[in-house]
Amino acid sequence: MLPPEELINFIETEDNFLIATHINPDGDGIGSSIALSMSLQVLGKKTVLLCKDLVPGQYKFLPGNESFYTLEQLKAQETKFKDYKNLILVDCNDLDRISDSTPTLNYSSSAVIDHHASERPFGNIRWVVPDAAATGLMIYYLIKRLGIKLTYEMAVNLYAAIAVDTGNFRYENTTSSVLRVASDLIDAGARPYVIYRHLFEAWSEGRFNLFMQVLNTLEKKDKIAIVKVTRKMFEDTSTSAEDTEHFVEFLKIMADVDVSVLFREIDDTHYKISLRSKDDIDVAIVAEAFGGGGHKNAAGCRIKADFETAKKELIGKIKQIMLN
Amino acid sequence: MLPPEELINFIETEDNFLIATHINPDGDGIGSSIALSMSLQVLGKKTVLLCKDLVPGQYKFLPGNESFYTLEQLKAQETKFKDYKNLILVDCNDLDRISDSTPTLNYSSSAVIDHHASERPFGNIRWVVPDAAATGLMIYYLIKRLGIKLTYEMAVNLYAAIAVDTGNFRYENTTSSVLRVASDLIDAGARPYVIYRHLFEAWSEGRFNLFMQVLNTLEKKDKIAIVKVTRKMFEDTSTSAEDTEHFVEFLKIMADVDVSVLFREIDDTHYKISLRSKDDIDVAIVAEAFGGGGHKNAAGCRIKADFETAKKELIGKIKQIMLN
């Protein structure tokens, strides 16, 4: 996986970079951005890390995470950063992914480094590799191409990025190159178990209780497993929507479940729905039918109806897809 | 990791091999044995795969698993196998690990390939590497040393062996060599997600219900999480002891749990106990205090007392260890 020469030129020629990742940032967005920033600094460049949202608690173990600015903080110090005219989007490929409202970033050139497929091209230089398991993998190859020695800090960030986007090497995107890169990152100092623990073994007791309450709502029929999380459950357990991460995926642990669904109650007639599937069942099609979207095996949408109606409509669509 | 030359000589010189793995076989024992057997067959050797127990259902996807004989089946066909005089123990290193009673195996030479530390040496040739994450890793290096090309079937067996013993690359034994070997196995045809699904996403509905019942017994205090499984729960959910695999480990998902414990009721005054711990907390010491044993982060023992007494005694010992 070779970065385009124009990206290399861009990095080698310019001096000041704004590095921005997407809203609701995940480990791949954050880890990749930090590792890119650190490697540009090795080349003597100046960098600013940007994200609309604060770094979520579970990623605070990543070395360098404290360097992120929110878009607001950047704006408040506009004068200080007025020379940063080169924007690099990381783990996303359009401006609307870095902010809900149009951000007022001042930049003259822009580049994109991402592994999501996109419909609306943005950026003077685009390096988008949908086949890459994680943006962290692309940053690894970029660092190699730039001839920079991997530091411990870069290795931890990139290993975490890859671990998050491959489900710790269990998803279908886990290729031999993914494991070869990860093994290189271990040689550079990344410790698999320590990182795993931070990423996947950091549930609060409230989150654990929420998990049990959610599992207790399980309905299973025709290889479809459905659970529900309500506002009351969040209240009872002092948790919030982000604590439901991985819940819907967990249902796939059952051999006879091919599609798993989490209904999150927004209000009595409004549900946010997460879908997961095994193998070739394409739940993105299901999500799109309700105005949502996503990937083949992981997608989401919203339905404005009471729970029973929403469930019935959704199951109908899922069954249609499963027949194909 | 180089196999000893005497093992290479043994394999190259002899023609007929009995390959035996331990009772209650796991993925590492089964996968390693099958891959070893297949590679010896490539060299023109004759092999018989042995295990006291039948291959558990979850490992039936491993190519070649149908070649296993139980010790009874071997005995019934004694004449057919009378020339098999070379015994290789795989993933265990003493005869008492391949059968509860002394097996009546006829062999003249014996070798051991294992990654468990042992106290009672057995075998004319011993290749025991406690630092190896899995016996599957050792078999991989042996196959390389023998100059044999990895087949798809060997790769699947070895990948599964390694995935089981590293918790799909999340335990502390996950080194850069582990990932490098795994990536080689993918290149030879092993498919990470397919194997993961067979190993870790094959729960029956009964097992899922058992899991929920067990989680509902959770007691948590001073970073120790305790759950219990009773005979009635097994009955209610049509499950058995082997269905509790991974339950005790799951509790470590909580950030503030350092030791997790599963009590399995044998009868009202007899419990089998599984212990897991994080980092440097050595639960093997706890298990040994009650006549059991194991590794630093995974151990087991039995206590003959009613539940409350057993729990009290165990917690006392755990707290002692945690203070050190």
From TrEMBL, chains A, B:
GO molecular function ontology, one term from the record: nucleic acid binding
Residue ranges of domain DDH in the record: 17-162
Annotated organism of origin: Dissulfurispira thermophila
Source superkingdom: Bacteria
Every DHHA1 domain range: 229-321
Protein name according to UniProt: Exopolyphosphatase-related protein
Database matches in Pfam families: DHH, DHHA1
InterPro entries given in the database record: DDH_dom, DHH_sf, DHHA1_dom, Oligoribo/pAp-PDE_c-di-AMP_PDE
